[in-house]
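In practice, a research group might receive sequence data for several interacting partners and want a quick structural hypothesis before committing to experiments. The following worked case mirrors that situation: the sequences arrive first, and a predicted assembly follows.
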Amino acid sequence: MEIQDISDDIDVKVKKYQRGEGADLEALKDKKLKGQLANREELYKKSANAAAKAEKWLMQTEAGRLESEGFEKTWRFSQQSIAQEVDVSSRKNQFDLVLPDLGPYTIDYTSSGRYMVTAGRKGHLAIMDLHTMKPVKDFQVRETVRDVVFLHNETFFAAAQKKYTYIYNNAGTELHCLKEHGAVLKLQFLKNHFLLSSINKFGHLHYQDITTGQMVGNYRSGLGRSDVLQVNPYNSVVASGHSGGTISMWKPTSAAPLVKMLCHHGPVTAIAFHPNGHLMATAGMDKKLKIWDLRKYEVLQTLPGHAKSLDFSQKGLLASSTGSFVQILANSSDSQNYDRYMIHTMVKGYQIQKCLFRPYEDVLGIGHSMGLSSILVPGSGEPNFDSWVANPFETLKQRREKEVRLLLDKLPPESIIMDPTKIGTLRTSNKIQKATKEEKEAEKAAAIAAAKSGPQKKKTKGRSKPSKVAKKKQEGVEKAKRPFAEENKHAEMVVSKKKQKRITEANELPKSLQPFVSRKAGVDI
Amino acid sequence: MKGGGLSIKQRWRLLWIKQNWWREVRVSRNYDPNLRTQEKAVEYVRALNAAKLDKVFARPFIGAMDGHIDAISCMAKNPSRLKGLFSGSMDGDIRLWDIASRKTVCQYPGHQGAVRGLTVSTDGRILVSCGSDCTVKQWRVPLASGIESNDSSDSSDKLLASYVWKNAFWAVDHQWEGDLFATAGAQVDIWDHNRSVPVNSFEWGNDTVISVRFNPGEPNILATSGSDRSITLYDLRTSSPARKLIMRTKTNSIAWNPMEPMNFTAANENCNCYSFDARKLEEAKCVHKDHVSAVLDIDYSPTGREFVTGSYDRTFSCDASYVISGSDDTNLRLWKAKASEQLGVILPRERKKHEYMEAVKNRYKHLPEVKRILRHRHLPKPIYKAGLLRRTMADAEKRKEDRRRAHSAPGSLMPHKSVRKNRIIQEIE
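A structural hypothesis for the assembly, expressed as tokens:
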């Protein structure tokens, strides 16, 4: 009995590691290829099983969760009551830093969740080590700072200041001044590609490779000023939200956006992407929060409310903040619907600028007009980290090694595509096959039949005389025939133009060469 | 109200923080695909880097062994001792080399003319050589592994037997398990170690037999190739030839696959090598095309997965990692089979890394960028040009064939002949 339970349990987990469906081997005729692929599939199954077993027996910690008994709702629990239930070291993650003078604060975490950089609008920049709760460096730049991001590790961060963007060291030394970006409103860092992307006051998008310093892309979005920029961690596509309610998604190698979707009736105020790449949450001034499925580009759920800032956690919880109020939504037990999980209200005057989940910890960081706060959100962080992806307990040696390995595995900017699993697969043929004559005839016949058998509108008061009905039907049939006739005319025109050209060219030749002009159609001179 | 289960985490956290700098750093893994984004792109970049590093570290030449005065005509390897290699030259000089030190261990002078074939008996004690002076000689192979100085007084000791026969010999090969060896000349002769005349003699047709090879799995089967463009299979038990296959061009050499003894590969005069299954000779299993001129010699690696061919050189391999080639410029060269392989003792971590690089390269080797790098070979100009020429000629042929087919009435022309069958004229029982 127990073995059965264990194997069922593992089955569910195995699916997670299989990364999609297996290949269809029945359709193959080549025996050798079939054998080789069957072998491969065996290997994949084995490795997925091994990973599932490792997860079951070797993953040390489980995620926590807020559970309510009876009629109590989970969102009724305040931070104080949660703090009473958890252990000391988790309680120290809950703090409030009151910094009233230097403007609304925005924050960013490193990918391991250990270091945090904050920027106050009036020029205060600070890096904090969250394990020891000590500031690493704290300095003033004396000009407006609009956004700040960490680069690949805690030793570098970029700050979007009044006129230009600057890159600083963790000792506070200014390393670079990036003038080309202009007056940037939002910055995002693409980790796998080492690209710093920014959107500036005029709505221009810039991509800069920070290892070589080369500007990889520089595009005008064409949709005006936009201060919403978010990177999709699944495929490194950057999405910007515009004041017409559209969201456009960009990649560094093309001047036109990959996708433009109309999301809201008013300006878009915030975007967030789920780490698995399928879900996107957007909020607009039309007081709606929409959750989209990115594979079909359809709305899954619409929730009421404003949101100035949205963020998905590693476990799929969605935090939305507006004014001085934060609400955290969770999808219950694998259903796609998000509903309220927790709320947190701050002191009335505080205007929340940004809310961001901390990786690998059950913590939500909030940057607001009077400083920083950090609240506990049980179940939001991934409890088991992978040392070779992001290690919160990194030593200096490990950090250096990691930097070298990241650089070796740096992806070229051309590898950004909407579906990253397509790399290495067969490309389907893009050839537009011209319909043969029979096919065209068949299409025409089908269109005529459809027009003839279409719904007949019956008019009242003596307006539906049989002669008029017949005339209408005839018009419908001719309308159906028209596109085919146009196509034919167009094709004939092309052919006749070619013929004309050939004839004029033939006439231009001296008389002695004219007999050698080929009379056959389709032969170019 | 219940809270989350975070206390286990606290314990682990304290353990982490407590670790001292001198203790081994703990690694924890989480294989969840959601933690790693764009795995395929990362793998592709690693495959590309692996292919480039392959070419950067490619240093195939290890060393040359010289000592011969005339061109090398044949080589033999000792199945029981991998370090020793025999080579015979056009002036009758046979030498035993120690590959590790690349020096001659001992010499066997005695042949009057060119030494055409060399082979070692199964136990590795006797070396059989045959030459164009119509003699077959048997020599003793020294057992000691140390380098001995060339002692001419010992040479008469080393020669065990010398048999004279009617015609010049072209090749010799020893059975893999047994006492017989076969020589190729005007016909195929089967000899026993102790008899001075051949035990048996096969003949089919009137032309000289150029090369002979025994099957590694079946000790009684041997394959020969003749100058009448044929490949013949003989069975010693039936004392008559079993099968004959006539091709369009002459086969210069044959090698059996030591791991799959029913397959053999024939090195042909028309720059291709054809792999056959001995049970079904009507079509070649595989055609190997890359040389630009006649392929003269061929040998399989002991793993049976790779074979090495030489044109205008004689080549073979003792071991799946080294290839030895002997040529007309009187020296033997030692090469690495995989040019970028790291020789010597490899640490387990290094080995894992090499295996990973191989695997990731193989996964993406069909993609254009990786394929271009892996396929690239820096060839000498004449060979490169000759290759291009051959390709244009083959393309022109194919195009003409296609057009002929397109413009002739359907069914009037012979159906498509597959490349595998193309070169075979007929098969005779």
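Before designing any experiment, note the following. Chain A touches chain B through 63 residues (CB under 8 Å). The first helix of chain A runs from residue 2 to 18.
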